[in-house]
Amino acid sequence: METMPREMLRNLQLKKFKRILKWGYENSGLYRRLYDQAGLTPEDIKTWDDVAGVPMLEKEHYRSAQAKEPWPYGDSLCVPLEEVTAYRQTSGTTGQPVYQPDTWQDWEWWSECWAYTLWAQGFRNTDRVFIPFGYNIFVAYWAGHYAAEKIGCEVIPGGILNTEERILKMKELRASAFMATPTYVLGMAETAEKLGIDPRTLGIKRILCAGEPGASIPPTKRRMEEAWGTDVYDHIGATEIGGWAYECTAKPGGPHVNEAMFLVELIDLEDGSPIEEPGKPGRVVITAFDRRAQPCIRFDSKDVAMWGEPCACGRSFRVLKGGVIGRVDHITKIKGVLFSPSAVEEVVRDIPELGNEFELVVRKKNDLDELILKVEILPHCCHQENKIKEALLRNLRLKTNLNYYLEFHPYGTLPRYEVKSRRFKDLRK
Amino acid sequence: MGTCKINRIDLDLCRIARAMEEIKTGVFKLKEFSGGMQCVIRNCDRIMASLAMIQINCEINDIDEMEKGNY
C-alpha cells in the first residue's frame, strides 16, 4: 500500500471513504442525524467533490452524542456495547473529555497503524523498546506498546517508575529504543545528566516522538538528537482518530500521512476550499477508514499543516512539511498579526545557550496586546545574557513580526512536563 | 540517509484473498464445532480480528474487482 501509485491509491481511498460513511450512517445515531440534517445519504457520495461536501465532525458532536444512552458512549457507538473491549478518553484540554470505545478489532487496527510507524522508523524484532509512559486512561503509547510487540520487539513497560528509575532501567537492560513526547525526551536527557549519565552512552538507536510537534521542528529535533546521539522520528495521532502520520528514516522534513488507513484533507483556513499544492497551511480534516466502534469521519482535528514534496524513501504517501505546524485554536491575532506559538519554539530551541523550557504569555495591557516570553539560560552561559537577549529579540521579530518582553529565569525553575506541555497561555480570553 | 528505498515485493492479492476465505471458513467451522466452548470462541474471534487487519492492509475483500485488474 505504501508504494501504490497515487491514482490507484486515491481510487481505493474513495472506495474506503464510501464504505465507512455508509457504516456510520447505518449504525450511529450521531452520523445519521448529522447527514440527515444535511440531506445527505451514503449513495450521494460518488466523487471527491461529494466527499468535500460531507459535513465535518467536531469534538462537540461526540460530546453531545455521549450524553445519550448507552452510557458512556451514547449513540455515537456503532456496535453492541458488549463488543467494546477497551476504553480510552481524550485529555479534556478543550472541555469535557471524549470517551473512546474500541472493539478488539479496533485495537488490532490501532496497533496496525502504529506498526506502520515503527517499521518505517527502523524498529525491528532485534529492538528492546522502553516505554516511559504512565499507562492509564489516555491512549498515548498504549498502541505503540502493542505495535512494538506485534512486529516482534521486546517491550519494557516503564509505567509507574519515576524518571531517574526509568533511565537506570534503560541502562540496566540496554534498551535500544524508546518513545516519548519531545518535552519528556529532553527532560530525560537532563535527568540522566544529573545522575552523571551521558545519554549518548546508553546505546539508544532510535527515539519515536508523539504527542507534540517537536520532532518536526528542526531546532527541537536537533536538540533531542544531539542529547541522545541518535535519530529522532515524529509520529502524529489522536485518541478520536488513531495514529495517522509517521516520519520515515529518510527524514523528508515531516511525517508521511498513512493514506492506507486515513484520508487527510487540508482545507483553507479562510474559505474552506481544498488545498492540494505544497507549502500552503490548511486545517487538517481526517477520516479513519476502518475504525468501527466509534467512527471518525471528516473529523476537524483543529491541527494546521501543509503538504510537502514527495519523499526519497519510495513511499507514495504524501508528506506533511514540518508536521503539525499549529492549532487552529492556538493561531491567534496579536497586535493584528497572525501568530502561531510553534514559531517561538523554533526560535528558542535554535539558541544553544538557552535551556529547553520556555513559557509564552499573551495578555492585555491598557487595551494593547503584550507578549511575554520566559526562558532559562544555561548556568554556564549566564554572563552572555545581553548577547542572548539581542539574538532572541532579533530572531523572534524576524520569525513572527512581533515584539516581546523577555524574562530570564534561573535554570530549572520553569515548569517541566511529562506528557503534553502547556507553554502558551492566552490571558486575554 | 536517502538510501532507504523500501522493498517492492511479489504480491499475489488474488491468491491471498482466496487463502483468507479458506481460513475464514475454517474459523467459522471451528466455532460451529465448539458447541460454544469459550476458549474456542475467544481465540477464533482474535483470529478474525487479525484476518481483518490483513484485509484492510491488502484491501482484498473484493476478489471480482481485483481480477478485473482494478487494484
Textual characterization of the structure:
The complex is a heterodimer of chains A (429) and B (71). Chain A has helices at residues 6-27, 29-37, 48-52, 59-65, 104-120, 142-150, 163-173, 182-194, 218-228, 342-349, 385-400; strands at residues 84-89, 99-103, 128-131, 154-157, 177-180, 206-209, 231-238, 242-246, 256-257, 262-268, 282-288, 299-305, 326-327, 332-334, 337-339, 354-365, 368-377, 405-409, 424-426. With 429 residues, chain A is an alpha/beta fold. Chain A folds into two domains: 1-327, 3-Layer(aba) Sandwich (Rossmann fold), CATH 3.40.50.12780; 332-426, GMP Synthetase, Chain A, domain 3 (2-Layer Sandwich). In chain A, the strands form five sheets. A seven-stranded mixed beta sheet of chain A has the order 4-3-5-6-7-8-9. The termini of chain A are far apart. The radius of gyration of chain B is 16 Å and the shape is elongated. Chain B starts with 12 loop residues before the first helix and ends with a helix. Chain A binds chain B through residues 1-3, 8, 11-12, 16, 103-105, 108-109, 112, 248-251, 260-261, 289-290, 312-315, and chain B through 1-2, 4-6, 8, 45-46, 48-50, 52-53, 56-59, 70-71.
The gist of it:
Chain A is an alpha/beta fold. Chain A folds into two domains: 327 residues, ANL, N-terminal domain (Rossmann fold, 3-Layer(aba) Sandwich); 95 residues, GMP Synthetase, Chain A, domain 3, CATH 3.30.300. Chain A has eleven helices and 19 strands.
What integer value in Å does the Rg of chain B equal?
16 Å
What sequence of helices (H) and strands (E) makes up the elements of chain A?
Answer: HHHHEEHEHEHEHEHEEEEEEEEEHEEHEE
Oligomer: heterodimer
Round the mean pLDDT of chain A to the nearest integer and report it: 92
According to CATH, the homologous superfamily of the largest domain in chain A is ANL, N-terminal domain
User: How many beta strands in the DSSP annotation of chain A?
Assistant: 19
